[in-house]
Amino acid sequence: MIKIESLTFQYDGGGEPALRDISLDVEPGGFIGIIGPAGAGKTTLARAIGGMVPHHYKGDFYGSVIVDSMDTVENRMTDISRVVGTVFQDVESQIISSVVEDEMLYGLENFGIPRGEIEERLTFALRQVGIEDLRCRTIASLSGGQRQKVAIASIIALRPKVLLLDEPTGELDPGSSRMVFSLLKEMNERYGLTVIVIEQKIMLLSEFAKQLIVLNEGKIYCSGPVRQVLERAKELEGIGVNCPRVASLAISLKEAGCGEMPVCINVDEAETMVRGLLR
Ligand SMILES: Nc1ncnc2c1ncn2[C@@H]1O[C@H](COP(=O)(O)OP(=O)(O)OP(=O)(O)O)[C@@H](O)[C@H]1O
Ligand SMILES: [Mg+2]
User: 167 CA distance to ligand 2 centroid (A)?
Assistant: First the structure.
């Protein structure tokens, strides 16, 4: 679905490349989590997948990004955005209407969705995100978290093949964050969407994503299935990635002489492991 080959990108005016020699392949139906310290290039990578780099953000672009068989440099943003639905890190900059329903209609009308289909898409997206009650509200009256949900619903209504979200739970409390991830899981499993999400809440991400990509200083530091990446939790702490404490538990226990332990990715697994040791 997405194939990136040797991508290097330096923003105009940037002192050094924001992305360096990135190559990656995302299969259709993948659920990818992107993590990394501040300034690692996560948002820039998302912009490159969505075509904003290099269409909106100018700079030196080397290598290629192919999304659903489209080369992002050779194709127009309007065509790329039909395939990749993006929820930006800065949700405020994404919302342009003053009422929730109008915001959602804007995208649908822009895409030329037939009138007869619009109502069904609107109600589906509002229901999926659990904000049917916000439909007629003004954006100004919404909390940050509610705005984030409106941005997500607006994208879901457009039915892209790829959902790309840059820190979608930044403004959300733990309950709503989990709700967003459950929604992504449903879109991924039931509707086959490819999901790519940049997220600081690594514990939550680890529970839902199938693969993790760790970025550091514009490069892929490591990538692979969630467990395989989290086995390197201590090393990742060293580059400024705050892994869940349960992930480094196995390493700490090994260092304390308890032998080889499998990595845990949630509290239940950690509890089972510790209980086993105490038996
Ligand atoms: N529009 C821009 N113009 C010039 N440089 C930029 C621009 N946007 C980002 N950069 C630079 O590119 C590098 C990567 O930034 P990016 O925003 O992609 O990192 P990030 O991993 O998303 O960070 P964060 O965790 O803070 O969101 C940084 O050095 C940043 O200063
Ligand atoms: Mg960012």
Answer: 8
236-240, long-range: CB within 8 Å, 24+ apart, which pairs? 239/36, 239/37, 239/214, 240/37, 240/38, 240/216
Q: Tell me, yes or no, whether 116 lies in a domain.
A: yes
**CA atoms within 13 A of residue 279's CA, in its CB half-sphere:** 7
CB of 57 sitting under 6 A from ligand 1: yes
User: What is the spatial distance between Cα 172 and Cα 168, in angstroms, rounded to a whole number?
Assistant: 8
The two three-digit tokens of residue 35, written as one number:
């993590």
Closest Cα to atom 29 of ligand 1: 39
Rounded distance from Cα 86 to ligand 2 centre (Å): 13
Q: Alpha-carbon distance 101 to 135, whole Å? A: 5
CATH code where residue 213 lies: 3.40.50.300
Which pLDDT band, with edges at 50, 70 and 90, does 170 fall under? confident
Closest-CA residue, ligand 1 atom 2, reads: 11
Task: Classify residue 259: in a domain, yes or no.
Answer: no
pLDDT at res. 57: 96
Q: Is 36 in the pocket of ligand 1 (CB under 6 A)?
A: yes
Q: Which residue is listed with tokens 């959902």?
A: 163
Which of 20, 43, 214, 216 most suits a substitution to test ligand 1, by most atoms within 8 Å of the C-beta?
43
Q: What is the pLDDT of residue 178?
A: 92
Q: Specify the number of domains making up the chain.
A: 1
Look at residue 204 and tell me if it is in a domain: yes
247 pLDDT band, cuts 50/70/90, is confident
Place of tokens 């939790």: 233
